[in-house]
């Protein structure tokens, strides 16, 4: 892409606070963007070929939304975690195996999408994020859900299409978790904590495509309590 085209995009972004450049085959983060570091609220560089995010990412002090879906990122810089205003982060379809240690500093984060990466566990850093509403970790390589998950503040957790065969009973203690998606994993019915049904806030549990028939779920102790929450929530939305 020519410099003149990039310049036009930058001029527009200066006025709108939005920089969108998707599907242009970019192999690196446009360094010229740092000129707008103090007024960009939205950056969307999805569907490119970006492999590395530079440390200058930390300078986008008013950035609220960052989308880098379908790039070639293998890691994120620690500097990304300085974005105190960031509310939405979309990184679907990259090659990420972990998150920076300081990821828990993204205190404004509400929506995090990491579908289609190479994560092997639910990152513990997510438990520090008090305003997190929606977490999408579908289509990764997660095999188990650890005890630390009990501190997760999310309302919706999507773990579809992983390799999960074990879930900590602590998931029942998530204070705000209403929607838990576990479709197409490797779960045996005996490995599904019954407290999810009998003693949690969860009002939508999606477990199709595991190693048991859904009708067996209905025989578990606590299923009637779960159905009460499910029905009450449904009424609220209709």
Automatic annotation (TrEMBL):
Protein name, per record: Leucine-rich repeat-containing protein 57
Domain of life of the source: Eukaryota
Alphabetical list of Pfam families matching this protein: LRR_1 (PF00560), LRR_8 (PF13855)
PROSITE patterns membership: LRR (PS51450)
One Gene Ontology cellular component: cytoplasm
Keywords: Leucine-rich repeat, Repeat
Family matches, as InterPro entries: Leu-rich_rpt (IPR001611), Leu-rich_rpt_typical-subtyp (IPR003591), LRR_dom_sf (IPR032675), LRR_domain-containing (IPR050216)
Organism: Gopherus agassizii
Protein's UniProt keywords contain S-adenosyl-L-methionine: no
